[in-house]
User: Fold these one by one.
Assistant:
Number 1:
Amino acid sequence: MNTVADERVTEVWERLVREAQQSGYIVNTDDAFAKDLVRGLLENEARYGYRACPCRLASGVASEDQDIVCPCDYRDADLDEYGTCYCGLYVSPEVSRGERTGGSIPDRRPVGGVSARGEEMEQVSMKGLAFPVWRCRVCGYLCARPQPPLVCPVCKAGKERFERFM
């Protein structure tokens, strides 16, 4: 790989690390591994026009792949249950401290991709909201998602400080 590409990978990796830290997330501390994943993200961006997860098959249609654009929709659930996201780019604090090891993670993406997921969400949304709304009890931040975030992006409170809202 040429120097310009390596410089671009390092630039994007450093930005991901900064943004993750600011949002309460941790990028895998195996820098070489994480940079290989960033290289895959950049290859997918060049190929498709968006940074699809390098560990999943993208269709090349942005609307069908929106759930696997990094960070994917499944990151928080994977971190919570397995300590690492599907591709291993993001890890939990326990994994980063060596208190837990990441293992094999089943793919949460519905067969057929986002279109299947969209149909499921459409059925659920007829009964109400597609996802529960979570409120940070510390700062009042609201988000609609299957589970609360691991860390509040505003005040950095842990997920245990979130409550279902409404």
Note: Confidence is low (pLDDT under 50) at residues 116-127.
Number 2:
Amino acid sequence: MINTALGLMSGTSADGVDGVLVRFSGTPRCPRWQILASAHTPYPTELRQQLVRAGQGEPHSASQWLALRQEVTAAQASCARAADPHRSAQVIGCHGQTVWHQPPGPACRGASWQLLDGPLLAELLQQPVVCDFRSADLARGGHGAPLVPLTDRALIPPIGGWRALLNLGGIANLTLLPPATGPERQAPLQGWDCGPANSLLDLAVERFSGGRLRFDEDGRWAARGQINEVLVQRWLQEPYFAQAPPKSTGRELFGAADLERRLQELGGELDPADGLATLTAFTAAVIAKDLQRSPGVIELLVAGGGCRNQTLMHELRRRCKGIWLRPLDAIGIDPQHREAMAFALLAWWRVMQWPAADPAVTGARRGGHLGVAINP
């Protein structure tokens, strides 16, 4: 019986690959789990820069795309070897690297491109791989994202009220788990992409530092600045933030062009600390506004690289009044492991023939299996 899976995840920030080796047992609906090993493999600087540029629409030739796909696949394989040197995983779930995401709309079908050569990864590792998790949901009319809420429901127990989980990656996204008891216990799972988290902040830091820095460590730079609250409140009125779920987004909306527009609105003689303070507050304000969609939320568990940004965490606490906010490791899950764990579980579900999709989250016409299974 298959019970050990390796999850590989690289998010919108494109800083590298997280790998988590997990043993599952019990039922697919509510499995028990144990983390056996983990690793983080940073992308080489040039690869990361290429991926960020590609994710913002920079043109590439066919040969450049093929080379980039092979480099990403090699980086995924390196992380897999680091997290599972003895190749004990019976299946590997690999998300790949998103370079473009197109939510469904009135004039177009939804589509999402995760850069990865699945057969090459399976051949390099000589282990079964499940990849391309979004396409089936997109084909059914859904957004194909976010997918982590589906696994949150299986891995994280409910409590006496609405429990929210927040991922602060390149994009901020929320999961809302219904209460364990009471009249709302049968309410549907909720989840959506809120908007930018680290995507704009990291781009701004690189710009302000002349490329010397990649992120605002601990939020110390932003902590020295003054927030332009008038602009924060104006930005909250933009169409994406008024849109009701299901909804999903990425760098194609909150990337370099969007940052340039916001910096222009902040003014020509902008102090970088003030710009970072305002962008940090904007991220927190977007999340706080979205939490108002479910006024019964009593706890917010935070994961992703952004949970190390103390200025961002301070702004979240200030704006999410009445909600108990704490990092995900308070319940025994490393904040950096959550998404890789999710793709380990999605891969396990696929080989167990367990339907994973939830139309209440993604907006698909129906649920079903997710992922394409590849044997070496």
Note: The chain has a mean pLDDT of 95.
